[in-house]
Amino acid sequence: MAVVKPFNGIRYNPQRIPDLSQVITQPYDRIHEAEQARYYDLNPYNLTRIIQGRKTDHDSDSDNVYTRARCYIQTWLAEGVLMREEQPALYVLEQTYTTPSGETRTRRGLSAALQLTRFDEGVILPHERTLSGPKMDRLNLTRVTATTWGHIFILYPDDENRVNEILQPYLDAHPPIVAREQVVESHVEQRFWVVDDPQVIEAVVQEMGPKRNLIIADGHHRYETALNYRDEMRAKYPDAPPDAPFNYTMVTLVSMSDPGLVILPTHRLIHSYGRMDGSEVRQRAQEYFDLVEVSGREEMEQALAEATAEQPRFGFYDGQYAVLTLRDPDVLARLLPERAAAWRTLDVTILHELFIERVLGIDKAAVERKENIDYLRDPQLGYDAVDEGKAKFLLLLNPTRMEQVRACTQAGEKMPQKSTDFYPKVISGLVAMGVGLEERL
Fold first, then answer.
1. Where are the domains of the chain?
2. Would you state the pLDDT for residue 126?
3. What is the topology classification, in CATH, of domain 266-398?
4. Are the C-beta atoms of 61 and 50 separated by less than 8 Å?
5. Is the overall model pTM greater than 0.90, yes or no?
């Protein structure tokens, strides 16, 4: 069962930080060097200083990004820049956004403390593989600050949208503490509520209780980090009670039936590649794909939109445009019979197993090291890179469908990395959760 609890959130004091757009950020793994510099310049209290601080040439065991993060949280709490919720609460984040196709949608997430369970217990399920480096980084930050800063985005089954129905009267009667502000991502408006009514909280907790097969949409590294931290703390403090917060982690829960739930495609850009030119690639690709040359980008993208589940299609651009349609839907069943059918029919699986590995000759280890591949949400960046000679080929995909994510997780299959891009991201800085020994849930 899914054990959900309210918690005494740590959040920015609106009396000290009236404009939250100056301090909240993208998730830590979206903060690269340029974004880090921009966030640092926005405000001296921007959360980046804690979740993705600047490294220096003088870093040591006693002075580094993690110790500086601890110093920031202690100082900001003492100064009243950060405050701790007086009573346990749940938190609601609504994000209204425009899709690449021009639709306006709203997605609602419920932020709460979720009891940690191993994947084999069947309550929380992963859908992507993880790497060791990011997990160690997040574990070090959690150890030093005793706080969970990033939200784990989790999907839960709720065909009748009962949780949202329970929340709606409260949201209608209470103004959000963040209202319709475009922050962090352009074209995404954020609304954020603190839900502290005990009756509403209890109704939500009871409704979530029987649920199983919740799926991690985004934050696999953070969830596994939370498990590692829990196990570490249990070993150190075996007499700690079950309601010690390190047995939980902060999540944002979104219904699988939410009409605002959207998955965007992640395109592949092939660079630093000299084994063959576009003409030879086209020829080799026809072992697995029907290849059709098209006149331009619009025709190629229209053809992608007409793909069927039985015969996936991909766009190929090397200065000229082509559409690749899988010729034989059963080819991967013959090549990889040990893998589940749900995994074999994923567009990303077909692209990587057949085109990237067998046509281009780029093996899994090279893909994992990102030697020849970059991942793009915006295809325009890929078109430009090819046109400017900075990359060789752009491969365009259709988005993974929600039913494919469900099927893979239920089959126990982890999807290839960058299979899903749930948009928009759950932003960091609206609320954090203490997981120190002395706290209780």
1. 4-262+423-434, 266-398
2. 86
3. 3.30.1760
4. no
5. no
